[in-house]
Amino acid sequence: MTEHKPKNFVVGITGASGAIYGIRLTETLLSLDYTVHLVVSNAGWRVFKEELGYAVTDREGLLNEQFGSYPGSLLYHPVQDIGASIASGSFRTEGMIIMPCSMGTLSAVAHGSSDNLMTRAADVMLKEGRPLVLVPRETPLHAIHLENMLKLSRMGVKLIPAMPAFYYGPATMDDLINFMVGKVLDSFGIEHALFRRWGDEG
Description:
Number of helices: 7
Strand content: 5-15%
Number of strands: 6
Largest sheet: 6 strands, parallel
Shape: globular
Low-confidence stretches: none
Helix content: 25-40%
């Protein structure tokens, strides 16, 4: 029997610090020959520039340069394109990951405020009962943040805060980034070797 291989994943990158998480996730999914539907918020593009030094004037050119060498397919959707394929529940996907997820986006998802493609696509995951994974990146957290996360968790959303572990002996920033990406892939049952698991021999 042929194992089913997921085809379409939606990846959102917001303006929370840690855009490299979403970039590494996208690279990894593409390297595994999946199709990635990418949405980057306006603040996310600013983080690309501020944290990573990317020239973001030619956005699609940057994405082609960053991701064009991988076997999978990348489809970029501007965050204002509320009519994109991923805005409809009739378009089939395996799920969505917002990595990193700002508290503003998390709040919008928790309250059903789908006024852009990022939050609309997340709302589609909820209404269709598909996996939705949020990787919040904020500290410290106040009560509203925590209440919104609890609300989403009770709705079945998987919350994977950007809290890398240290038991496996990370030596570089890449190790820490790969750990978080690996935890996201674990939530979808996708095999990877991005970090050493507890109990595995070093």
